[in-house]
Structure formats: C-alpha cells, structure tokens
Design a protein that fits this description.
heterotrimer, A alpha/beta, B mainly alpha, C mainly alpha, B: mainly alpha, MetI-like fold, flat, C: mainly alpha
Amino acid sequence: MTIRTKLLASVIALGALTVTAQAETLRLGTEGAYPPFNYVTPEGKVAGFDIDIGLELCKRIGAECEVVAQDWDGIIPGLLAKKYDFIIASMFITAERKEQVAFTAPYYMAAMTHVVPQDSEITEFTNETMKDKVVGAQAGTTQADYAVAMYPDADVRLYPTQDEASLDMASGRLDVMVGDMLPLLDFVEKTEDGKCCKIAGAPITDPAFVGEGVGIALRKEDDDLRTRLNAALEEIRADGTYQAINDKYFSIDIYTMK
Amino acid sequence: MVDLFSYGPLGWGDEILAGLWVTMRLALVTLPVGLLLGFAVAALSLSRSPIFRAMGAGYTTLMRGLPEILTLFIVYNGLGLVLNQLMTLIAPAAGPVEFPPFAAGVIALALVFGAFAAEVLRGAFQAVPEGQIMAGRAIGMGPRKIFWRIKLPLLWRYALPGLGNLWLNLLKDTALVSVIALDDLMRATKVAVGVTKQPFTFYLVACLIYWLMCLGSELVLARLERRANRGLRRA
Amino acid sequence: MAFLDSLTANLPKLLDGAVTTLELTGLGALIAAVVAPGLALMRAGGPKAAQLALRVYISFTRGTPLLAQLFLVFYGSGQFRAELTSLGLWGFFRDPFNCAVLVFAINSCAYQTEILRGGIQAVAPGEIEAARAIGMSRAQVLRRVTFPHAYRIAWPALGNEIILLMKASALASIVTVFDLMGRTRQIFSRSFEFSVYFQAAVLYLLITICFVFLWRLAERRLSRHMAAPGRS
C-alpha cells in the first residue's frame, strides 16, 4: 500500500468513524523503520522480511491483507484499539508483552548484540565498562529494557526508531548501540553508514530479555486467528516457502539461527 | 541532489508532495472544527451562568496549559481504546471501530485550536462597542439583525489578526502528527532521511516548505484584514 | 486509589523529568533573554541591512515548526560531523540536551525580540525627549527610560512566550532527552498504563500555574510605581 492510498483510506474514514464488519480482509500492523525486516521503499511501499512472511501467511489462511504502518511505541495500543488485526514487526515474545497481547509460535529466533565504532576497544560489556558511555537503543524494545537494566551507570538514550539510533551511531553520537542481531548485522555489513561500526562482544541470548523468539502479536480474544496463523506458519516451513523468503534477505536460516 | 527530490520511484519528491497534501488537508479540516469549538467555548465563557463560565475558563486553561504533543498522545492512544470499550458495551456485534490517525490528528489539533480561538473570540466580542448596538436598536433592528449586521462583522474585524496567528500555529503544529504515524510532510521527510541518510538536506527542505506555506498564509491574511477594515477611518 | 498508587510509583521518574523540562526551558529562555534586547533595538532602529537580516531570521523561525528545527539541528548536525569536529564544536552538538537548548534559545529569541520591539516602540517619545533634555546620554536613556518601560509593557507577553516554550520543550523527548514528556513516554511504552499521561498533564499544569503566579508577582513589582498610594 502506498502512502497515498493510505491517505485516501484515512480521508474516507474521517468524519464518520466507520464501523467495519469482520470480513476476510485483515489488517497487518508493522513499523516500517526496521530494515531489513520492515522498511519503506522510495516508492513509498512497506517491504521487508516481516511483510513477505506476513503476506504469505495471509494467502495461506485465505485472507486479503493490507499493511498498516504504525510507530513502535504505539504499536501494541494500536492493536488493542483495533487499528489492525495482528502485528508482524519483529517483536520479541516477552512475559511483559504477554500480559497485553497473545503471540503465535516464534517465526524466527533472535539474539541481541552490541555495536561499537570501528576504533573502539570495548570487548566486554558490563556496567563498569559502560560507565558514563553513551548507549543508544530503540525506545520500548527489549534492547532498551536490557540497556536500562544492565547499564545503570551509562547514559542511555532511547530513540523512536532503530533507523534514528543507527543514524546517530554513524554520526558518532553513540559509544555503543544495543539492538537486534540481524538488523544490526545488516547495518554494519551492507550499508554505507554502517561502515563506521562493528559488532562487538558475545551475542545477548538471556531469555529474560530475548524471550522465546520473535512472534506475531494478536489480541487475546482472537484465538481462532492465532491457531490459523500457527498452522500456516508450519505449512510454509514445511514446503520451503519460508526458506525462499529467508534466502532473499539472509545467509543463515533465521528460523533456527544455525 | 536534484535526483533525491525527483518525482518518481527513485526520488522523494512525490512522497514529500503527498505529505504536503496531508499537512494542508489536516490544517484545512481542523480549521472549521476548531473554529466551531472556539465559538462554543467562547459562548460558555460569556454566558451569564457562573457554572458555564467556569467550564469555559477551565477548558481554555487546561488546553492552553498542556503541551500539544501530550494532548495528541492522549487523544490518539486513549480515545481509540475508550471508543472500542464503549462499542463492546453498547453494540458488541458491531465489530471494531476504526479510529484513523487522521481523525486523531484533527481532534487533537482542533481541541487546542478551539481553546486559543475561544480566547480570541471572547476578547473580540467584548470589544464590540455598546454604542454600535444601541445605534442598531435605535433604528429598529431586532436582536437577530443586530447579531448578523453589527456584531458578527465587527467580531470578524477584531478577531481576524488573532485568528490569523492561530492559523499559522496550526499549520506548524500539524508537524506533530508525524509522531503518530500519519504520513504528513514531516513524516515523509523523516522516512526519506531514514533511507538517504541526508538529514540536513531533507529537514532543510521541509523547513523551507513550511516557511513558504506560512508566508503565503500571511499574504492572504493581510488581504483579508484589509477587506475587514474597509471603511474604517484612519486616525 | 489505583491512580494514586501508580502516581507514587511513577513520581520519582516524572519529577526527574520535570527538572529536565525546567532546565531546558530556563536555559533556553535565559539565553534568548540575554540576546533579545540588543536584537530588538536593532530591529526597532538599526541599519537597514541588519533589519533585513533580522526580519528573515524572525520570519523563518516563526514560520517553521519547532520540531522541524529540532530535527534540522540534531540529526542535521550529524551530516557535518567532520566539519564540526575540526571546528571543535562536535562535542557540543553530540549531546541532545545541548541541541535542544540551542534550538529553544534560537526560537525563543525570535519571539522575544518581536515582543520587546513592540515594547520599545510603545514607549512614549515624550519620555525619551524629556530624558535627553535633562542631559542623559544615549546609554543612560536606554537603561533608565526605554528598557524599564519596554519591559513593563512587554512583561505579560514575555510570560506567555515562556509558557509556550515550556510546553514546546516536550518535543525534546523526540530527540532522546528524558524530560517530563520523555519519562512519560518511557513509562507508557513499558506498562501501557494510560494514566501516566494524566499524571504528566497534572505536572505540566502545576508548572504553568506556579510560573504564572511568580510572573504576576514580578509584574506587580515592575509596576509598583503605578499602584495607587497605600495599596502596594
């Protein structure tokens, strides 16, 4: 969906708040600032791994899906307010989020990592080594929780999007960035800006922060949709569709992380 | 650099123009809603009942004391939830209520605009000279005629400069909706920055576009004021 | 009761944010207040070129959203990191708090200049002629006649401007500063506890009310010579 068609949709919806009947049209909520998982192309379309998987799952459960972009810190409230029917936006399954929403089985495994400038000599990441260092992360994410909890003596900065955190990493405002392994790998290896920086230290796999992997979030009452999405996920794993999408973006199988 | 702003799949010119269109529509839709609200609140503040007056004063104090962005978050995140909870209570079968960001933006901006406009309108109403109304009565005009022929034209003249300022503020405040995922000019710029990594270039262009809009508005406002003040003797 | 419980839980963080909000506003307004009188004089009767430059500056600042100005300085400065480093300025721009204060000061300075210019131009010419007639120098006239009058006239408008700046400082939260709004968003993004927005609203209103009270006190002091005898 282009920016413009979305505008059109909001014009139509304005004035009278329209009441939509639940047909087989579903709305897929995502963020759109998290390459390569979800991002906006110069044509104004939301694309990425999350979107490809999400639309494929829609096809399998026989639903017509439209993509709705939503800022990260409003993404769960947006789901609860029924702005869309499920979230596929690289969201970690955590206990805290489970109090608000339900999750499907994980559709990929994830770990977090630290990124530092090329000339940085930090290899150990503890509260002592991070003392007075500027640590950046995206607000409202498990990475942010991790940075705040683990480095109380650091100067933690939280950004609305990962893109903005990366931009500030490249401009040298941050000494350390904490983020998801895969997008940050993509950032340092594939982008011009990412040349500034490198991955450092061991991956963070602490289940207290990383949770059980990355899942699709739904409203708790939509149990039926959850079952259907889980079945569809198993189906695309089994028939190789998942692998094909995976290989478009990554050199490793991110479902198992091996 | 020209390529960056070209109108096509690779440049950002079309996205930014689309964003500009949202910004303008947002401001133009908010204006009448906010003005109506402003009239209503001004009427409350001018009412004879102390309860109504307190309501009017409370509303303007509250809305003018809160950061616009806080109002926006409360409307966007809060109203959607409340609406849906209400709907499940009233009509559980009806399904979810759509609460698009555009509507949230219009409501939040109109709430703020209305509070400031109410103050401007109240001041203008009070500035209408008693003598003019008496003169109207003396030549046999009824209260309704006095309102349409005397009070309203004078109100327009007195309120126009203040309302003009509010319009400029409104144009600029629309930029805030970019933080609630509405693809306005500001957000289109942000998306372009995310991809091109040229923040200075793009934000400067966005600033210039807003500036042009404001300069254009000022020209129109100056003409409107001249028209509203025609027939006025110069001191 | 639930509201009170959550308020006590959130209060330390919110108050910490409120202090940052006050610092942002206070510093921004103060820097602007130091620069604005000079600019206002120039705007009211300086050389043509300076007047034109000031008009462009004021028109641009007032004609663009503060959010856009903030992004321009904060993220835009990153684009010129090498140049800024060689000038020794990067250390300043590296800190989002500094960027926010700079933008707020530039912004508020434009508004304060216009307000003060209005005040200066409203000083009755007779007062200035009288001061000159008794032999005051130009500087003395400014210090003893023009500015005291101009400030008294401009005082309420300056107060409004500072309140507007305080509210606008909430935008600093978007460039990672943990002011009151930043803390509020942080708490909301973890707990989705909606009442935190209302708690923040109460704090913002309290700040405004305290400020209005103090500003009126100062205003009474500024115009004490106008009060009827025996009443001040």
